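Q: I'm a student working through a structural biology exercise. My instructor gave each of us a protein and asked us to get a predicted structure, then write a short paragraph describing it. Mine is Tyrosine-type recombinase/integrase. I'm not confident about reading structure output yet, so if you can add a plain explanation after the tokens, that would really help. Here is the sequence I was given:
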Amino acid sequence: MASIRKRGNSWQVRIRRKGYPLLSKNFPRKDQATRWAQQVESEFDRSPYAPTARPELSVGAALVRYGEEVSSQKKGARQELSRIKRLQLESFAALDITELRGRDLALFRDRLLADGLSGNTVRLYLAVLSHLYTVARKEWGYERLSNPCDDIRKPAVGKSRDRRFEGDELQRILDETDSEILQAILQLAIETGMRRGELCALHWLDYKPAIPALKIQMSKNGSSRVVPLSPRAVELLEALPRSGELIFDVEPDSITRAFRRACDRLGIEDLRFHDTRHEATSQLFEDGLEVMEVASITGHKTLSMLMRYTHLRAGTLAGKLARARPR
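A: Happy to help. First, here is the predicted structure for Tyrosine-type recombinase/integrase. I'll explain a few features afterward.
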């Protein structure tokens, strides 16, 4: 059945029939919208858009296909496939791809935000679904498929975080967790400024002890870089068992969950694993490295992004001022 409503300066027609894809179109005048709706409904009756024109496909099955054909080709494949696994657990995964509605995704969005996920993280989940619908419409034969992600508000992009490890928080987390992998990754993240996904993708062949350094073959921004290692970072790597090709054979999300559990048990609030990157970047500046030196280590391409990850402690700066301007 067709519904016509005013949206801004245009009239929107939405036509839904069970077993058929949702049709939506905007017109400058209501009479044009009415005529189009009547024409399409008449064509529905003659069945040019019959469901037999394309196979039924659930959202869950579409996610599997999207993961195999699209996500697997991306440089961030592991992270996106992890998001797909979570999406497949949602109740809407059982719906036909033509039946998923904006209200379903609005509830999903609100639940993730209530669970404490950041607006940026929620946007990543919605981006997977949105692109899935774009691919289905353009490449899978669902030309008239409407994208339900277009019908909901996206969470606001969060402001830059300035959380760093305070006092003995780092040591308390290391003492709390039984995961030797988390202990090593957490310390190495702070020593190198590497992202969670970069650490989990490291192979032993990427370790260059003669320099010493780690080579990141493919970073988030699509380029490789060589990260010099401190003596402590070398010590951490040399202490790890070499039982396979990967230095850390673990999923990135598993690291995040283990870190969050340790913080929860300790009552440490508003601290995320990604804050290790803020901590590392800030420490590099506090150690006296120049802007270009820090950027070459962290992989930040712009000064503005580097600034988002730099939060120098007032006490450290005061000490430098005291040394530079003694009485």
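A: Here are two points you could use in your paragraph. The first strand starts at residue 2 and ends at 7. Residues 119-139 form the longest helix (21 residues). It's a good idea to check both against the output above yourself.
Q: Great, thank you!
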